[in-house]
Write a structure and sequence with these properties.
alpha+beta; 2-enoyl-CoA Hydratase, Chain A, domain 1; five-stranded antiparallel beta sheet; 32% helix
Length: 396
């Protein structure tokens, strides 16, 4: 009974702390400090009695006697967040949080893909170039069925990602569903290092920049690349956001500030009470005014859709390619005690015109969908159309 009382006390404290996080709506991709717990949160005696009954049965009847309090606590917290029904909200125990931060930093052991949810199913959002996943033929939009011997039904996005990742050189077997067909992939894990910004000159003053994510260093690298290409004579920009799963909200605002005029809106954040906060282009960032074509596809998600939507709404770019993924919600990460963390969906975002693209995506101005033969032949019709559009555009 002492163990039950101790676990109940721990749960009470953590539930209070967790609720105070939910009540906070200040949005930032940075880790947020905890707020003071509310004083009016109460659970009924019946609710606590049910908790004590389950805990007692586990202690007295479960086959494996040595179940630690921390294991039960992680299960309680994970289940509480899981009950929200939001695939992007998650409780991260210390081990999971360490994996999560290493992936955010851009280097980890895995197969090179970003996971998300589409049609309420675990789905590949994007596949990184030259990764084991790309070489094996995995595509954006493929649905997970099984990882090794584990069916993914009932697992969170984080749990699936943890099973896919692993030591470099080891193998992982994936069963994926694509258009009703079940596909099997056996891949060897490798070190995945994501270089979020790359650029080069093409022809006739057209420069191309590819963004594969929005990390802490992305905005500085994007600005440096713009300046470098400008010195090489860039007068038009082909911005490739395909297979870009998003990233830090602060990073995409800083990136957009290079292209959106000072003090113009970039994104509108709306919390659960309908309160709206507008993020604007900073006047202190150098501005690059030039014709822009943005390439998007089904792997363009979240922060990448914020950038595409801002450029479209301000008539600064022509969007070419396929409809984007449609992830229009924002997660805030909260660092908790004992090395754990909470990632919680805290707001939806709207484009500057007020459009919500969640589960809808952004439609391109010029739709270009590659055929199966294009993929087999290594052709890139969206790139070709985007380039031809820029070549015919007048330089300001």
């Amino acid at each position: 009974m002492n163990q039950a009382i101790r676990l109940r006390t721990l749960v009470t404290g953590l539930l209070l702390a967790l609720v105070c996080f939910v009540l906070g709506y200040y949005l930032s991709p940075a880790i947020q400090p905890a707020l003071a717990p509310p004083q009016n949160l109460q659970f009924t005696n019946d609710e606590w009695q049910l908790f004590d009954e389950v805990n007692a049965k586990i202690r007295d009847e479960f086959l494996e006697k040595d179940v630690s309090t921390s294991t039960l606590m992680n299960g309680v917290l994970g289940g509480m967040v899981g009950s929200l029904g939001d695939p992007y909200s998650q409780y991260l125990d210390p081990s999971s949080y360490s994996d999560w931060t290493s992936e955010i930093s851009g280097t980890y052991g895995g197969i090179g893909m970003e996971l998300g949810a589409k049609d309420d199913r675990p789905t590949v959002i994007s596949v990184f170039p030259d990764s084991p996943a790309e070489k094996a033929g995995i595509r954006s939009g493929d649905h997970f069925v099984k990882v090794d011997e584990t069916m993914v039904e009932g697992l969170t996005i984080t749990q699936i990602a943890q099973k896919v990742k692993g030591p470099i050189g080891t193998e992982v077997k994936l069963l994926m569903e694509r258009g009703g067909e079940i596909l099997t992939f056996i891949l060897s894990r490798a070190q995945i290092t994501v270089q979020s910004v790359s650029g080069k000159m093409l022809q006739d003053g057209v420069g191309m920049i590819r963004l594969l994510g929005f990390k802490e260093q992305t905005a500085d690298d994007f600005g440096s690349t713009l300046e470098q290409l400008s010195r090489q004579g860039m007068s038009k920009l082909l911005l490739d956001l395909r297979q870009n799963p998003g990233g830090l909200l602060s990073s995409v605002i800083d990136v957009a500030s290079y292209l959106v005029p000072a003090n113009e809106s970039i994104v509108i954040l709306e919390d659960r009470d309908g309160n709206k906060r507008v993020s604007h282009s900073t006047p202190f960032t150098p501005k690059f005014q030039l014709p822009i074509v943005v390439l998007i596809d089904g792997g363009t998600a979240s922060a990448a859709e914020i950038l595409a939507g801002a450029l479209r709404d301000h008539n600064l770019a022509t969007l070419v390619g396929e409809r984007s993924f449609g992830k229009g919600i924002v997660q805030t990460s909260f660092q908790l005690s004992q090395g754990s963390a909470l990632v919680l969906t805290t707001a939806r975002y709207l484009t500057p015109s007020g459009e919500s693209i969640h589960k809808k995506g952004i439609s391109p101005n010029i739709e270009v969908i590659p055929t199966a033969q294009d993929i087999t032949d290594g052709k890139d019709p969206a790139f070709e159309r985007g380039l031809s559009t820029l070549l015919s555009a007048a330089t300001p």
